[in-house]
Amino acid sequence: MDTAFAPEDIAFREEVCAFFDSAYDDDIDARLNNPDPAVFQPAIIEWQKRLFERGWIAPGWPKEYGGTGWDDTKAFIFETERASRGIRDVIPFGLKMVGPVIYTFGTDEQKERFLPPILNSDEWWCQGYSEPGAGSDLAALKTRAVRDGDEYVVTGAKIWTSYAQFADWIFCLVRTSTEGKKQAGISFLLIDMKSPGIKINPIVSIDAHHSLNEVEFNEVRVPVANRIGEENQGWTYAKALLAHERTAIAGVADSKRTLEMIKHYASQEVNGGKRLIDDALFQQRLSDIEIDLMALEFTDLRVLASVAAGGAPGAESSLLKIKGTEMQQAVQELLMEVAGYYQGVLPGGPEADVLGHEFGTRAFKSYMYGRAATIYGGSNEVQKNIIAKAVLGL
Amino acid sequence: MNFEFTEEQVMLRDSVARYVQDDYDWDTRVAIANSETGIDRAKWQTFAELGWLSIPFAEEYGGFGGDAVDVMVVMEELGKGLVLEPYLATVLLYGGLLQKGGNPEQQAAQIPPIIDGSTLGAFAYLERQSRYEIADVKTTATADGDNFVLKGEKVVVFNGANADQLIVSARTSGAQSDEQGISLFLIPADAAGVERVSYRMMDGQRVANVVLNDVTVPASNLVGTQDAGHELIAAVVQEANLALAAEAIGIMQQLNAKTLEYTKTREQFGVAIGSFQALQHRMVDTFMSFEQAKSLLYRAVCALTDDQEDEVQAIHALRVMVDKAGKHIFGEAIQLHGGMGITDELDIGHYAKRLMMINTTFGNRDYHQAKFNALRYN
Ligand SMILES: Cc1cc2nc3c(=O)[nH]c(=O)nc-3n(C[C@H](O)[C@H](O)[C@H](O)COP(=O)(O)OP(=O)(O)OC[C@H]3O[C@@H](n4cnc5c(N)ncnc54)[C@H](O)[C@@H]3O)c2cc1C
């Protein structure tokens, strides 16, 4: 048993580091971390284009579609280096969600039309799955698509649609049949956001920002050619996509990075003449988290090793999601504790030098938005149901 | 043994509860939070008319002469409505310092305008470097003839932007973190040399950083004994801690009730999500957290009103429990509301944010736990 990466992987890591050192600078870092969508959105496109030019925009994709052709270990190394530098991940909706569905289940025309602008970030996608009445029970979705010649007429509403306000396209699960099992009447449609009949209603979230939306469809006409695969088989494609994401979903490198931030700030904060980092209770909190993270890092590697050896990731990804999001929330909470009173300063307040504090608002934003990590992508309760059934056989 | 309220206290509780329900509904609260000042002076005037602003003050100045139980009753109900008007800052902190430490002239001059609602006050005690340590004071007050000249900066002053009067802690002797050598000064907010920068906190409060550029006040504005301000602050903060805990209890009760209601009505998989045993147990846990916190609140309030020996310990224990139970309860409330819990529109997140702010006010859990440990085990 050992944890050494193979020499070629070590060489690969050096290549990755060299790229980040040259392509990622303070200027892009500042803009990517700006909570104002007007600043952040063009910045992430710019950054994704840099990755595209390097040929590294789509680690998970097969080479023939413009992916890197990396194995899981290389993808893992890349993710880890990215996160440990605090570099934001790419926007997932095109690159990690609909892209793989299109190259796996789409027609040649669909691949030709949609994959290039996903890779070069010319088109922004959003995910239209959830509905007011269909969250954890996604298959209960009601937005209906009625066939009319070579078009579908789509009517209904999607909710919690992240970044719909920027999107050129939305991929949707819609109901095309009410017969049989509810999973069996769902189709997968690609819908142009400029279509007449689409209305976007913004939803402000508890971090005081706008990323979420409700998207209404009022008799929106969608060419049948924009359907992925067979009619009524959409659920199968969506499920295949869920299994796609298997590396780095625990976000260990991101959590470790936040932990380093915590240590940095905790060695500057002083309470009653004592540095916070020297406080016994604080150290206890820190090490509780750090020990859990040390374990999770290895759980992650164990899953990676078994996948690299040809195993299927299966329900282990549920474990990584649950533990990973719990750890993310724990580090976000600890950063809030370090910020003390200043954790409560809303965005848009005075500049740091007037305020007297540097990171409170940032801690606030990541903590508040971070509450969602245990809810989206299959809530942690739902993940536990999966483990209970699939792993423990209950 | 008796954990019942007196008839008067029941009337007081019902009066605040009714007001919050009828005149401080969620839309009203949101409108106030988003207004320029973040508070509603007309509502404050109503508080005065209803007698709530008089509660902790001595009868000779028009006060009600109430005790910690009376304050607890009011705060718990104000918490349920997330009331934004500065009861803590004006009545309990600013007013508390005057009530406990002011000389008769100061009391006669300053307390009636608190009670009649015409003066809003604030207590400026935090500094950039101080975190939770109230004795960490760099702001200086230097005697100059019959005056004191104050120089320094106070931060995150609750109600600092709206206050007419400030009480400021400043160092008159001693080293930066010494308890000895801190004095308190009454300063009109419009005094020459006072500069305020206002900003919003996540719980809707307007706070201010207050820069004191050689602010000159007469020596008669000294509140309490020179150099012995820390003791006075500690006594007032002690009661404020109890009041904040009571507010937190009111909030926790709301969060639990709203979450319970939601799980009974939100359906997924064809049934109410409250029918899932996995969630039922979670709600039983939050219910127990609430009851435990409430018990410590009662324990602390009894210790304080009976002047028991362990009152300080009881209050630190209470603050530890409120932090723990609060995080547990608001965490579950958000989680069990799913996507709805993440919206700014729903009240759940706002209750959570107020609990979070309460948990930083006068010390977080670790701060209080360390104090508790020192008293108990050293
Ligand atoms: C920030 C954010 C971004 C999102 N982005 C998108 C997006 O871009 N596109 C999109 O389609 N969706 C998105 N979502 C939606 C997300 O996938 C849903 O919120 C999620 O599926 C939960 O559904 P719900 O909100 O309706 O909660 P509900 O399903 O109503 O769940 C409420 C609570 O009940 C629990 N629960 C439900 N069923 C069970 C059960 N069987 N056993 C035990 N507990 C249960 C849940 O875990 C949760 O705690 C986003 C959500 C958030 C918060």
Automatic annotation (TrEMBL), chain A:
It holds the Pfam family Acyl-CoA_dh_N. Belongs to the acyl-CoA dehydrogenase family. This is Pimeloyl-CoA dehydrogenase large subunit. Residues 232-392 form the Acyl-CoA dehydrogenase/oxidase C-terminal domain. It comes from Pseudohalioglobus sediminis. The keyword Ligase does not apply. One of its GO terms (molecular function) is flavin adenine dinucleotide binding. Keywords: FAD, Flavoprotein, Oxidoreductase. Residues 126-219 form the Acyl-CoA oxidase/dehydrogenase middle domain. The keyword Flavoprotein applies. InterPro entries: Acyl-CoA_Oxase/DH_mid-dom, Acyl-CoA_Oxase/DH_mid-dom_sf, AcylCo_DH-like_C, AcylCo_DH/oxidase_C, AcylCoA_DH/ox_N, AcylCoA_DH/ox_N_sf, AcylCoA_DH/oxidase_NM_dom_sf, Mycobact_Acyl-CoA_DH. It comes from the Bacteria. Its cofactor is FAD. Residues 8-120 form the Acyl-CoA dehydrogenase/oxidase N-terminal domain. GO terms for cellular component: plasma membrane.
Automatic annotation (TrEMBL), chain B:
Residues 229-367 form the Acyl-CoA dehydrogenase/oxidase C-terminal domain. One of its GO terms (molecular function) is acyl-CoA dehydrogenase activity. SUPFAM superfamilies: Acyl-CoA dehydrogenase C-terminal domain-like (SSF47203), Acyl-CoA dehydrogenase NM domain-like (SSF56645). The keyword Endoplasmic reticulum does not apply. Pfam families: Acyl-CoA_dh_1 (PF00441), Acyl-CoA_dh_M (PF02770), Acyl-CoA_dh_N (PF02771). Its cofactor is FAD. Keywords: FAD, Flavoprotein, Oxidoreductase. This is Pimeloyl-CoA dehydrogenase small subunit.
